[in-house]
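Reviewer comment 2.1 asked that we show a complete input and output for one of the modelled complexes. We chose the protoporphyrin IX containing FE case, as it is the one discussed in the main text.
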Amino acid sequence: MNFEDSMRLAVRRFLLPAGLLLVTALWLYQSQPIGSPRSGSSWQGYALGGLAAALLVWLGALGVRKRRYFSADNVRGWVAAHMVLGLAVVVVVLLHSSANLGWNVHGLSFVLLLLVVGSGVCGAVFYLVMPPLLVDLRQGTSREEFLGELRAADERCLALGQRCNPEVELAVRSAITGTLLGEGLIAQLTGKDHSTAKLPAQDGGAESSAQANADQAALQRYLAAAVVESHNPQHVVHLQNLVLLIARRRELLRRIRTDIRLQGWLRAWLLVHGPLTAALLAAVFVHVFVVFFYW
Ligand code: HEM
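Response of the prediction step:
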C-alpha cells in the first residue's frame, strides 16, 4: 500500500471520527455560560485543553510506534489517523484558548503547533509528489545501477583520455576526481553542482588551473575546442568519442543528483517535523505547569 492509499484510508476511515471529535469540541465550547468570557479556565476549557494535550501526546508517539511495530498496514493506519487528527487538533486548541493568544509561553505553544502542523502538511505533499517523480526519473533503474554505469563511463573516459595526449588525460582525470555528488545537506537538497576540473589555461599557457565544472560544462567546452584544434585524425576520433561519453556522464550525474534531491526532501522534512514536535511537547508541558502553579 503506498502513501496515496494512506491518504484515501485517512479520508474514508478517520474523517467521521475526526468530525465527531470536532462536534464534541464545539459543543463543549458553546456550552460555556453566556456572559462570562470564554477561556481555558472554565471546566469546558480544561476539558478541551486535556483533549488537545492527549491528542498531542498520541500524535507525538507516532515516532515511537512507527519504529517499534513492523506491520506496514498498521503503520499506514496510524499515519492516516495521524494526518486527520493532526489537523483537527488545531481547531481543538483554538476552542480551548478561545483564540486568546499573546506573546508568552501559551502563544509560543500555539506557534509551535502551527509549525508542526505546517511541516506535517508539507511532508504529506512531498510523500504524494516525490514518488511519481522518482519513478519517472529512474525508469526502472535503481540509483546503484546509475552509479555502476557512471563508474564504467569514468573508466572509458580515462582510457580514451590516455589515447589522446597528457593534457587531455589530465583534464579528464581531474574532472572525474573533481566530480562532487551529494556532498553536504544543502547541496543535496538544492541539487547544486560544485564540481571542479583542472583545465589548461584558455590563453594557451601550459599551467592547468582548477575551475568550476558544474554540469561538466567546462570540460565539454574544452574537449569541443580540442576537437577543432587537433590535427591528428586518430585523436579527433578519440576526442569525439570522449565528447559523447562526457555527455552521457553528464546525463547520469543529473539523474543521480535529482534522485538524491528528491529522496533528500522526503527525509529532510522529518528532521524539521520531529524536533519541532519535541519542542511543542516541551512548550505544552511548561504551559500546563505555568497554568497550574503560577496563573
Ligand atoms: C500537532 C500535530 C502533529 C504532531 C505532534 C506530529 C508529530 C509527528 C511525529 C512525532 C512524527 C514521527 C516523526 C519521525 O518518525 O521521526 C510524525 C510523522 C509524520 N507526520 Fe506528523 N504530527 C502532527 C501533525 C501532522 C499533520 C497535520 C500531518 C499531515 C497532514 C502530519 C504528517 C505526518 C507524516 C506524513 C509523518 C510521517 C509518517 C511516516 O514516516 O510514515 N503530521 N508526526
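Residues 56, 59-60, 62-63, 66, 79, 82-83, 86-87, 89, 113, 116-117, 120-121, 123-124, 127, 270, 273-274, 277, 280 surround protoporphyrin IX containing FE (CB under 6 Å). We note this here for comparison with the apo prediction described in Section 3.2.
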